[in-house]
What we know:
By secondary structure, the protein is an alpha+beta fold. The protein has 3 domains: 9-153, 2-Layer Sandwich (Beta-Lactamase); 202-301; 303-443, Histidine kinase-like ATPase, C-terminal domain (Heat Shock Protein 90), CATH 3.30.565. 51% of the residues lie in helices and 19% in strands. It contains 8 helices and 14 strands. The strands form 4 sheets. A 5-stranded antiparallel beta sheet has the order 4-3-7-6-5. Residues 295-299 and 396-409 have low confidence and may be disordered.
Amino acid sequence: MKRLKPRHIQTRLTLWLLASVLALVALFWLVTARAPVVLTENYVVDRLAHDAEVLILGVDPTANPPRLDPAYANPIYERPYSGHYYQLDVGGTTLRSRSLWDFHFEPRTPESFPGTYHAPGPADQPLLVYAERIRKDGKWIEVHVAEDLSALEERIETFRWRFAAVTLFLLLIMLAAQRLIVRASLRPLDRVRRDCRRLEAGEIERLDEHVPPELQPMVGEINHLQDAMQRRLSRSRKALGNLAHALKTPITLIDQVLQRSRDDLPPETAERLAEGVTRMRKITDRELRHARMAGEARGGQRFEVDQELPRLLGMFRHLHPDKTFSHRVDCPDGAFLRADREDMYELLGNLLDNAAKWAESRIRVEAHRGEDGWHLEIADDGPGVPEGSLGELAHRGARLDESRDGHGLGLAIVREIVELYGGSLTFSRSEALGGLRVEVRLP
């Protein structure tokens, strides 16, 4: 059988503290419940020993038969079943208190003196008996002095019930206080968890390091990892932009040489070279445009749809003044995508670039947030894609050649970003505009 191992730290602490509190309360209960019995019995034994000494002083063992001076016996010993009893054995003669009536104590071995023991008495009274054996005037005297514990046990039982009620009440208070203490102790973890969610949403760039010493190593490592990822991401984006920018001059030079040498080359060769130069220029222009879109922003920032989408469309309106861009955003104010801002710029930038390339005049963008996440839709009034090729566009891992006619520029990057965020990418024909309709669903 597997041991119980709760996953939550709060549950573990609660269970362990509960077990320790219950063990402590149980031990406290045993000690406290036993203490009154021991203390009261010791008090009764001391009093019985004193009465035994007085009774022995009043015995005359030399008399025939031995007798006890009534002046040495407390009057309570004369009342039948009074709860106070004595029995004296002197040289074969037994002297008993009148309270014993016809009851007598069993004889004991000499080794058991002095001592105390519990025994049933008259009318089945629970007795505490003190026994002593003393030699007086050449004769052995065995004395048994007893007291009824009924009233004492009843009071002790009442005390135990009251103590149990008070203990239970205090235990409940301790458990409630323990729960509050555990929650208060784990509150820094809740704050770190909230900061992690804010970091994921792009609301903050680093975790707050003003945390208890036990959490500082973990928070420090997360911040170190975040900084390292940001540096790598920034270097990658800058390197890609720098590379594209550096290639512009050699491409322009190659194009100029090609134009000057076009008459000296076979027409087919010149056409192929011109096509290759055009493709390289498109790629570098695209990467430079992405680098401008990324700017100096840090990765991990959230993408505020109602603010970022108009800004992105404004840039494309400037790049394609002959096209009409319309958009509609259906979401509450301040709604945002829990995604990297530059990832969303690249995703939408590629889709808008494709739409602007093949549209006749109109591009429509819609964004709304549903119960299952965000729905982004981009449609154009271009020639669209044949029904048989839509499956090829949506096929996982397919990369269409950018030089081919149709929609294919950057779709592989779009597909990778959508898959990275666990979303879906769908291609179809736009019923309103007649061109390609691309729908992106992001959780």
